[in-house]
Amino acid sequence: MRLTFLGTGTSCGVPVIGCQCEVCQSKDPRDKRLRCSALVETDTTRLLIDCGPDFRQQILPQPFRKIDGILITHSHYDHMGGMDDIRPYCQFGEMNVYADPKAKEAMLEMLPYCFAEHRYPGVPAIGLHEILPHHTLHIGDLDIMPFEVMHGKLPILGYRIGPLTYITDMKTIDDSELPYLEGTQLLVVNALRFTKPHHSHQLVDDAVAFARRVGAPKTLLIHMCHDIGLHEQVNRILPDGIDLAYDGQIVTL
User: What letters, b where the CB count within 10 A reaches 16 and e where it falls short, cover 23-35?
Assistant: First the structure.
């Protein structure tokens, strides 16, 4: 199984429009962060996790072949605002999209023309499936277990896919969810910045503490804003086994 990080940034992306900080002005490509999204691929199955407003830019460098399903973590625009751009992939057939009830409702409101009784030619053909935590999905040769984390007061989905656990926008997680993470080999989890607590996002210290609870051999941090610092400098001070992910990074599991 192969994981490709299409985007590792928070809702504003990095660089932030108009910002002159050293991160936003950095020439290191690892400091350029599009909105969070990832591809999970085997020899026969290809899944997209989230489809934010940068999807078109993110997917253009990737081989053009069928995407078997899109897993949505939650209803916020930076995680599903690029859904209209899936239309070229609908030549392979209807695109199956999996979302919890809140994200499903938001998608119906955001893209009403895709679900109208009489759709005009060319709109994306979306098969929208409601999913719930702890109910396994079977897509191609992958088994996917959705579980629940809290984005502030909003319940959202994380995904366990074989050796991979993928979490974004988490603030807290109930202890009852931890058994679904047992045996994780690669933990992907959000870490907004080092200081200035946020009401709905973990900071780096929170993510490190959570990684130690999970006990995965390797943890990669995502959903980072420009305040986190320069990629190269931050990776020098993170604990062993924990690193910042970067756009375009490929990990084989």
Answer: bbebeeebbbbbb
